[in-house]
Write a structure and sequence with these properties.
The chain is α+β, with helices and mostly antiparallel strands. It is built from 5 helices and 7 strands; from the N terminus they run ββββαααβαβαβ. Helix 1 packs parallel to helix 3.
């Protein structure tokens, strides 16, 4: 196949005192992700979308939370390793479309930095990276401010 499509999803609980890292950007806020790694929900969803596109399993298969090597790891490193798997299989990124679900804080001022980080890691032009932020209108755990979610779709093209 010359193109492959992948979908990724991730969710993390939020807790007071933890750092909130999204797309490699530290977002100042009173709450942050609860996770084995640094809890970057956006990078984790991108990893799952990339692996899904090549039928390569999921983030837990490649970087299990039971492995102490990944404790507090920078998720950018996991994304780089995942993209190396994609390239080894002969694919490059066509484009990526991501949605972050978070009630607070507002992310508008951080989106371009997230896009830049993602584009650099995935060796593509920033114009191929879309990141949007939405709220849950006070519904469910994300809407109540207790969780953060990310949905990602990627298109890969054969090199």
């Amino acid at each position: 196949m010359n193109i492959r499509i992948g979908h990724g999803y991730d969710i993390h609980r939020l807790a007071n005192g933890n750092r909130l890292i999204i797309g490699g950007v530290i977002v100042p806020y009173e709450k942050g992700s609860v996770a084995h790694s640094d809890g970057d929900v956006l990078y984790h969803a991108i990893i799952d979308s990339l692996l899904g596109a090549v039928a390569g399993g999921d983030i837990g298969k490649h970087f299990p939370p039971s492995d102490s090597a990944y404790k507090d790891i920078n998720s950018a490193l996991l994304l780089e390793k995942t993209f190396n798997i994609i390239r080894e299989k002969g694919y490059a990124l066509g484009n990526i479309d991501a949605t972050i679900i978070l009630e607070k804080p507002k992310l508008r001022n951080y989106i371009d930095a997230m896009r830049k980080n993602i584009a650099e890691i995935l060796c593509t032009n920033i114009d191929n990276v879309s990141v949007k932020a939405k709220t849950k209108e006070l519904c469910d755990a994300a809407g109540e401010g207790n969780a953060i979610e990310a949905y990602v779709v990627v298109l890969l093209t054969k090199i």
